[in-house]
Specification:
- The complex is a heterotrimer of chains A (322), B (347) and C (330).
- Chain A is of the alpha/beta class and 322 residues long.
- Chain A folds into two domains: 128 residues, Response regulator (Rossmann fold); 136 residues, Response regulator (Rossmann fold), CATH 3.40.50.2300.
- In chain A, helix 2 runs parallel beside helix 10 and helix 3 packs parallel to helix 4.
- Chain B is mainly alpha-helical.
- Chain B has a domain of 239 residues.
- A two-stranded antiparallel ribbon of chain B has the order 1-2.
- The longest helix of chain B has 27 residues.
- The C terminus of chain B is likely disordered.
- With 330 residues, chain C is mostly helical.
- Chain C has one domain: ABC transporter involved in vitamin B12 uptake, BtuC (Orthogonal Bundle).
- Chain C has a two-stranded antiparallel sheet with strand order 1-2.
- In chain C, strand 4 and strand 5 form a beta hairpin.
- Classes of the chains: A alpha/beta (322), B mainly alpha (347), C mainly alpha (330).
């Protein structure tokens, strides 16, 4: 049959493909006599998470610990499974980036039963989860929402229509930053009205698509924009340009993260404010904390990282986070 | 060139192809064990099985659907919908009744699929694509895109905690289901009828088998297993989420195909599906233990998949050759006795 | 292809009713008109130049992929699920290389590499005869994995804001460049499918593979060609997407394959091959995009729009099956 050599060739081609994949591939696991940290992170490629991961690795390296990093790729189900893997692997310490305020609790209980110290990084979890982790390192996301509300309220003079571009639905950071914002506005007695809240998963492209919809629906009625992070705010700006509107007519935008692009935009007058939150500090603090715990030291239950509000006033004197 | 062709035609090679699933499984185990020494420990194996149990439940249903010659892409969405129901109704109905209703949702979803494919005669790829989009959007609609939690995180530990230090409850559930399916496919008349429906629906109909009824039933079964998977998954994390199960359908299809079930219908094996699932389970656990990024695992899964269907194509082109182990041994003996005859076939 | 008579089982020749003869062809334009009316009634923002231009922009990226997917459908290639991977390849490569060799050469490289993936698909499906669904699924997973490994886990940023301005700009201040590119691709695709020899071969392969085998049509080449074309066009979409965002990650193409399939199916192109056309597929895309637009204007959030889409696909295909049977073609 003439197909035989063809199929044989195809098998060879697939094998070549496999080799190509392996060539670009990963490393075997290292074994250390010292500390094994299992780090369940949010993603492998994200503007904020990636520098946080790198800082984490650096700090762990310095202390002589090995890190086994598992990425949830923003999928909670994967994360809960990976947490179980960490526990079964017998890690010396677990660092978890929770994408959901509650779903990890069963896994955390298992970690506690196995006597493995566990901390959560960056995103808060519900009150019920508190007894199951040893420490929470990271920014105060609710506070960030509050600061953003102050900034937007100030620039809009207390009144106007805003849209909120929120992060991943159900994520503790999203909830904190959004609730902090809306509750602060109520506290201030502001007359700012929230037209709509959309979820863009902390992703620029999704924010672009969601912003297109917002602009379609509200167009020039939008007086201000609050984005849960700068990455998504960039998506809004992309949508604005795409719709043929002039950048000078952009409504004031408040974002969070303190990215370079946000800084440039503040200097150009197209962005109102951002809140600097250093991913490097986030990662570093988490690594240092878990290592302390593995070594038997006690740490505070809540270890915050500092926040700075940046507007055109101080944009030249502050460094961008990343 | 002739030597190459003869190599591909030899009984050894074809024997390898025939038992490819078992061979891939063994190869996976060997490679994983050499990369990760601890992988063959019982604890690691138990973890692998537990890890794959959600996908496994969906794969069981999918095996039956594929056997009938159809496709079902909506498993993941049904999973999420059932999970949301099981967690969401906990307050009103109590945990166990809510779980039962959750499975019921899966049954209903399967009925919808069956209706689309059998009654409206829509191609199953398109129909289950449509129902996938619909159910997924329904999940988002009900939950307003926010995951929510149930009453008690400890309740779900029942299914995901290893029993007496061995395997978890959900592992036992899917293994039992697979064994039951295997028995049904090989022993029950209805099971064998399904093979007939899958390979030649017209002929099956002509011999008195109600093909449409069978096809409808497979979709209902797939919906039920996806529903069960969703309920168990949501209970184990005490969360109902509109984004659960997004990769489950494709993983399940991969496992079933690796296990030798044909997409065109007429050939399936529950044990093959088990083999495919084990391959993926061990791969996942081994990769995670050794800090290998997820994309490498994806590449490996994709390659195995391609390899398997290529080899499968091979086997189908060699019908009529006796490829069993006994025939192979006979031919080896004959070749040893008559060294100048290189190729001999069993009669 | 119009027939004015039809055969029904039993062998009698009957006059077709007006509805069943033209139903299939007119349903789509009628549907679009209905949507336009509905949209205007429901929202005063709908019938504005700005809004309708936005609809066209939203359509453009998926539209380019739809052209390729139509070829796949017509040639009975089922579907090409490797689209997310080839889109990602295009987007990532163009941005990685834009400061090394310039944006437009980098775009070419991106499209070429994507088409290589298409060649692999084509060989496996067209020549080795593997099932296209699983094959493109697997190859997509592999290519995406290689892309992720290549990029090393970070987002690729572009260096060429000038190219972005060109692409996201408008000709004469009115017509968006990206829409022009899409229309050009659609036109070329339509000419290829409806007028060229390759197009005729594609229809032949899709409608009656056994009869075609006896003829001189190179079946395997045609089947492979559809996949090469889809991968190339998906690569092009990825390149355009990457340039217009100046940022790309491997997940950039997620979901586009199902969007394309939805459009093609709603447009009435049959999964079983042998019928349909580019204008019909584009019509389907326009219908879906308009519907989305109307829902957005009404404030329906994005996710539940999927319910409508799902119901739409089911309805469209069911209608098509029904009309076919009434029209005497099964």
């Amino acid at each position: 049959m003439r197909t035989t050599p063809l199929i044989g060739g195809a098998v060879a081609a697939v094998a070549a493909l496999a080799l190509a994949g392996c060539a670009t591939g990963g490393t075997g696991g290292g074994d250390a006599d010292s500390m094994d940290i299992c780090y369940v992170t949010a993603a492998e490629s994200h503007a904020y998470v990636t520098p946080a991961n790198e800082a984490f690795d650096e700090a762990a390296d310095e202390a002589g610990a090995t890190v086994n990093r598992l990425s949830q790729e923003f999928d909670v189900q994967t994360g809960t499974d990976q947490l179980t893997t960490c526990v079964s692997q017998g890690a010396d310490g677990i660092v978890l980036w929770p994408l959901d305020p509650q779903a990890y609790i069963p896994g955390m209980i298992a970690a506690q039963d196995a006597g493995i110290p566990l901390i959560i990084i960056n995103s808060p979890m519900d009150a019920e989860a508190e007894e199951y982790y040893d420490s929470f390192t990271g920014p105060d996301v609710y506070e960030e929402g509050v600061l953003s509300a102050d900034a937007l309220d100030e620039v809009l003079g207390g009144t106007g229509n805003v849209v909120i571009i929120a992060g991943q639905a159900g994520n503790g950071t999203t909830i904190g930053r959004t609730d902090g914002f809306t509750e602060r506005l109520a506290e201030l007695g502001s007359e700012i009205e929230v037209l709509q809240v959309v979820n863009a998963d902390f992703d620029q492209q999704k924010a672009l698509e969601a912003s297109r919809d917002l602009l379609t629906r509200f167009g020039d009625d939008i007086d201000g924009v609050y984005a849960n992070d700068d990455t998504m705010a960039l998506g809004f700006i992309d949508a604005w340009k795409e719709s043929g509107r002039s950048l000078d007519a952009l409504p004031p935008i408040v974002g969070i993260n303190g990215q370079i692009q946000a800084f440039d935009l503040i200097k150009a007058g197209q962005y109102y404010a951002t809140i600097v939150q250093s991913p490097a500090e986030d990662g570093k603090l988490a690594a240092e904390t878990i290592i302390k715990l593995i070594n038997g030291e006690t740490v505070d239950k809540r270890l915050p990282i500092p926040l700075t509000v940046v507007t055109s006033d101080n944009v030249d004197s502050v460094d961008p986070a990343f | 060139m002739n030597a190459v062709r003869r190599a591909f035609d030899s009984d050894v090679f074809l024997g390898v192809v025939r038992y490819r699933v078992a061979i891939i499984l063994v190869a996976t185990i060997v490679v994983s064990a050499s990369l990760v020494p601890g992988i063959l420990e019982f604890r690691a194996l138990s973890l692998s099985l537990d890890r794959i149990s959600t996908t496994a439940l969906v794969a069981v249903g999918l095996t039956v659907v594929l056997l009938a010659g159809k496709l079902d892409l909506s498993g993941g969405a049904i999973l999420a919908l059932s999970g949301i129901t099981a967690i969401g109704l906990q307050e009103e109905l109590g945990q166990v009744p809510a779980a039962v209703v959750g499975i019921g949702v899966g049954v209903l979803a399967g009925i919808v699929n069956g209706f689309l494919v059998v009654v409206l005669r829509i191609n199953s790829l398109v129909a289950t694509l449509a129902s996938m989009l619909f159910f997924r959007a329904l999940c988002h609609f009900i939950t307003e895109s926010r995951p929510f939690s149930g009453l008690d995180p400890l309740f779900g530990l029942v299914v995901s905690r290893p029993i007496e230090g061995t395997v978890t409850l959900r592992t036992i559930i899917f293994i039992l289901l697979l064994v039951a399916l295997h028995l049904w496919l090989t022993r029950a008349v209805a099971g064998r009828n399904l093979f007939a429906v899958g390979s030649n629906p017209v002929a099956a109909e002509a011999s008195g088998i109600r093909a449409n009824g069978y096809v409808f039933g497979t979709f209902v079964f797939a919906g039920t297993t996806a529903g069960a998977a969703g309920v168990i998954q949501s209970l184990s994390v005490n969360t109902g989420s509109p984004v659960f199960g997004e990769s489950t359908s494709l993983l399940a299809i991969a496992a079933v195909v690796i296990g030798g079930t044909r997409l065109e219908g007429g050939r399936a094996s529950a044990l093959g599906t088990l083999g495919g699932l084990l391959v993926m389970a061990i791969l996942t656990t081994a990769m995670e233990f050794s800090n290998v990024p997820a994309y490498i695992q994806n590449i490996v899964t994709g390659v195995i998949l391609l390899l398997l269907i290529l080899l499968d194509r091979f086997v189908s082109g060699k019908k009529g050759r006796n490829l069993s182990l006994t025939a192979f041994l006979r031919s080896v003996r004959r070749a040893r006795r008559n060294p100048e005859n290189e190729r001999t076939h069993a009669p | 292809m119009n027939v004015s008579t039809a055969t029904v089982p039993g062998g009698r020749i009957v006059r077709q009713s007006w509805a069943s003869r033209y139903g299939a062809t007119l349903a789509m334009p009628a549907g679009i008109v209905v949507l336009l009316v509905l949209g205007t009634v429901l929202s005063d923002r709908f019938l504005s130049v700005g809004n309708l231009t936005n609809v066209l922009i939203n359509m453009s990226i998926v539209g380019i992929i739809v052209v390729g997917m139509t070829f796949v459908f017509v040639s009975r290639g089922m579907a090409d699920l490797s689209v997310p991977a080839t889109v990602a390849v295009g987007g990532i490569l163009v941005l990685m290389l834009d400061d090394v060799i310039g944006t437009w050469p980098a775009a070419l490289v991106g499209v070429l590499v994507a088409s290589l993936a298409g060649v692999v698909n084509g060989v496996l499906v067209g020549y080795a005869g593997l099932n296209p669904v699983i094959t493109t699924l697997a190859s997509g997973i592999i290519v995406l994995g290689i892309a992720q490994a290549f990029v090393g886990g970070v987002i690729v940023y572009g260096q060429d804001a000038a190219a972005k301005d060109v692409l996201t700009g408008r000709l004469f201040g009115v017509v968006p460049v990206i829409v022009l590119i899409f229309l050009l691709v659609a036109l070329l695709g339509h000419l290829a499918l409806a007028r060229s020899v390759f197009g005729r071969w594609t229809y032949a392969v899709g409608s009656n593979p056994h009869a075609t085998e006896a003829s001189a049509v190179p079946i395997r080449l045609v089947k492979a060609g559809a996949f090469v074309l889809t991968a190339t066009l998906a690569g092009l979409s990825g390149v355009l997407l990457g340039i217009s965002l100046q940022a790309a990650r491997p997940e950039i193409g997620t979901g586009y394959e199902f969007d394309a399939i939805t459009a093609v199916v709603v447009g009435g192109v049959s999964l079983l091959g042998g019928s349909g056309s580019i204008p019909r597929a584009i019509g389907g895309l326009l219908f879906v995009t308009l519907l989305n637009n109307i829902l957005i204007l009404q404030g329906v959030p994005s996710e539940p729009q999927g319910m409508v889409k799902g119901a739409l696909i089911a309805g469209a295909v069911a209608l098509d099956v029904y009309l076919r049977r009434r029209g005497g073609r099964e």
